[in-house]
Amino acid sequence: MFVHHKPANTGCRRHTTGPRAGTTAAGLYSGHIMAGWTEELARARLHFVTGKGGTGKTTLAAALGLALADEGKRVLLVEVEGRQGIAQAFDTAPLPYAEQRIAAGAGGGELRALHIDAEAALLEYFEMFYNLGFAGRTLRRMGAIEFATTLAPGLRDVLITGKIKECVGRTDAHGKHIYDAVVVDSPPTGRVVKFLDVTRAVTDLAKTGPIRSQADGVVRLLHSGQTAVHLVTMLEEMPVRETMEAVAELDGAELRPGAVLVNRVRPPRLPAEHVATAAEGRVDAARIRDDLAAAGVELPDATIDGLAAETVQHAIRLDAEQRARDQLAETDLPILELPESTGGVDVTALYELAESLTESGVS
Question: Is the whole model's pTM more than 0.70, yes or no?
Answer without folding.
Answer: yes
